[in-house]
## 1
Amino acid sequence: MSLLEEIRRTLNAYRIHPKKKLGQNFLVDEGILEKIISYASLENDDVVLEIGAGLGFLTECLAKEAKRVIAVEIDPKLTRILVRRLRKYENVTILRGDIMKIEVPEFNKVVSIPPYSISSPLIFWLLQKDFKCAVLTFQEEFARRLAAAPGTKDYGRLTVTVYYHAEVELLDSIPKESFWPMPEVNSMIIRLKPREPPFHVEDEEKFFSFIRAIFTQKNKKLRNAIMPFLSEIRIPKKDAVSLADSIPFSYRRVREMMPEELGLTFNHLIKRLYEMNSAALKSD
């Protein structure tokens, strides 16, 4: 029996119809399933997190190679199928709920085909976790945004944030025909490996607020794109204009700037703000 036939038979037996809003498109190509697992280079002491376990076909493969699998599924109907299907695997823990809202045990690897509707928040969530490697499948357009070069249409806040935290590899494209129901676009397998930041910033929290603000206007010159951020941190307009003119690369467009250049600009800005605050205190 093919994977597609087994998926259809299981869903029919439980009277389940795939939900588009939950991104329930099931992978029906066993070769790609094996390829996804191979990219994670699993060892028998690995604890693997799977987000959006679905009907458990990937989960079962992972359970045969890893020490433990933590399978998270938000749909209660699919969770019941998972519990029944995987009951013989003592090394599988099934959690029902939203991955970003529930408590998840420690893991060192992630292997998953997550719902595409949560791709962006999932990446930001994952980058705050301690893990060794993540092999994930996303829509191809989203995957390319993770590793885009400055100046390209896909380059943005997501690119800079991921670059700061991890190395990204774009591995294989997956044709949309490999899923059922068939989605509208092709997918891509990617691999994330956390690393030490490749450049220094004075305040990480403020840096990512800075990145979020300027990339809402990424086609503008930096001196103009930075104004909403300065307003957000309550810099008076007359001081904001002076600051915007003083920063490095002020006449470069945001979308053209490398992450390291953005870090340098931010550090200069923080230094100037500190000098301004010190001068204000002395004058008082």
## 2
Amino acid sequence: MPEINFVGKSDSGLKRRNNEDRFMVRSELGFCLVADGMGGAAAGEIASRIFAETTLEIFSTSAGRSEKDTIELVQRAFNFANERILSHVKKNPHHKGMGCTAELMAFSDKGFVIGHIGDSRTYCLRDGQLKQLTQDHSLVQNQIDQRLITPAEARNHPLRNVILRAVGIKKKLALDLIRGIMFSGDLFLLCSDGLSDMVDDNQIRNILFSTAPLLQKVEKLIESANAAGGYDNITVVLADI
């Protein structure tokens, strides 16, 4: 496995009192994640924490691993977290409706595996080109796919926050798995929608493509989201190959 440098940071934004986002970077275990809680009344914060803690527990049992092992670990992390959030709601009915979107990126001896649910995103900057690797599980993305609205119209759509998939909402989990090969110089970005709703892809690309250190890039992305309004929690993780 090549050397990977991870940096992550989360900010509550300018409009929210609490931060329901969660991130985790564990270079020794070869994974990073971003989870965006939903449900309010502190329940979203609990859901994203459950996802992060469950993932750490699952990955702590593994060392060097094949792509097959990595896929199984990612699936197990999502499934166990889903079960634990549902169990929490059963014991705490006043938290009904809580859940989280989640990006989990894990590296194997051959490449990377991404587990994705919701409208948090994973991008890759390669050879100066920024590519979104995940597709939002949202109402407006469905409308874009059906060519009912344009991506520009989606940015200010009144229903842009309607999520169609999340961890902890249904017993049967519909998980997207994305696999790929990594190359030296690749820069991966995991972020909550607090960044992607506020900062367009071109601006994200310019910040990532700069010569600034990783931490400064993370801070500049968060600063840009706040400068655009900071309406939501903002969480950014970078993985530099």
## 3
Amino acid sequence: MKIVGVGCGPGMLTGEAIRVIEAAHAIYGSERAIELARVYIPRNCRVSSIDDFKILSRLPEDAVILSTGDPMLAGLGYLAGEVVPGISSLQVAAARLHLPLARVVVVVAHGKGHEKGMLETILEVKRKKIVFLLTDPKFDVTELYRRLSEENLPVPLRVACCENMGYPNEQIGTGDLETPPMPSAGLYALVIGQF
């Protein structure tokens, strides 16, 4: 089985990912992942959209599973098999904001991890790290900003809201805790720290 990162948006596939997809006989993935790779999928390849990701570990050995962004950034990299990296929203955001990745810490707060994500973000900001916070539409951004404001951090923090990274409608709003950027789209991540 191969788990292939298709990038966070159109045109973000690596050469290696393209080669694996072009040689595939059976491809599985979300509708979004399939759409990002569609131009490279062979006509004779069986393509299956997956909604229930619990079945992925039971797929045949020759399966190619598409993962949006990079499989190792809150993706499907936990599955057994060869992982082919993709260009992640983290890499794109860091490039756009000129952030050194060595200073960035990833915090995942989507699904049921909202409270844990808030606490980890506060802890890492106190450690003077730049936090790349992966969220979901139900994450309470206003509450996070309120909690960070109550910490009386010695240096003002910058905040960036990175939306639709890699897509034509990509946008990055920046501000601070007094005038923080608010997300308007479902696909977004926050960057918080001294940058």
## 4
Amino acid sequence: MHKLENNINDLMKDLLNDYDKGRTIDEVKTFDHPDKEVITEILASLRRIIFPGYFRNRSFRVYTVRNNLSMLAEDVIFKLIKQISIVLRYDKELENADEMTLAEIAEEKTFEFMGKIPKIREYIETDVQAAYDGDPAAYNKDEIIYSYPGLFAILVNRIAHELWLLRIPIIPRIMTEYAHSETGIDIHPGATIGKYFFIDHGTGIVVGETTVIGDNVKIYQGVTLGALSTRGGQALKSKKRHPTIEDNVTIYSGASILGGDTVIGKNVVIGGNAFITRSVPEGAKVSVKNQGLRYNYDASNPVQSEAPQTIEVDDESWFYII
């Protein structure tokens, strides 16, 4: 037992000494860190506020829904003020501000954000409609609201984007990375997205910080709206690095559209697996060269054929991979 205690003491001494090397990971902040669990709770409450008939607490009767929403809103307000007051110190202009100043700014930003909820609800209603109109596998809108990962990722982005516009550090990114972990859809909170946005399937989608997306845009799984190069590192901060997607564009699975100067014009269709680094004019259809398929077979005995026949197929459906 004595030997075990000595081993533990030696180990702890080495571990504690390891914290004294002055690295980023060794830093102990003099202020609190944002609480990821609380921020996730805020998201859940905001989801209930935005969809009051879907995600409300079922222990409340219908006639108390308004009271329930009031309690939810009050809970969000107090939690958000606390979390914003913590992260405001990451703003260099406020890192030395006193607690009262931070609390006042946090309260102001919280109420400004809460005032954006009707706008968020207006936009998410169009996203639900876009999903219903665009997906023949959707049998009703309830199915979309309850189960579609694309809609959830869009909802979180619309919430986080409003916080991003208020220049609130860290919290918007925590929100969208939570959605990313839940859905496999990575949308930066800085991305600007118009109405009637539809993500179908969704897994593997990446939308970068400075992306601008217009109205009535549909994208499928595996699409990347990214930067052409990030080798410039921090020197590229705040520069337009990601593409602009104008209205009524459809982007099929696996396509990559890269670069801040790249503009995809209105009514464009981008075929599956296309790799695009330059602008596309309005109304164009972009596709990878049609895949040539080759079949070797014997109609009488397809398993054991001594003299297989060959058919070459130029498959037009290659363009529309979903």
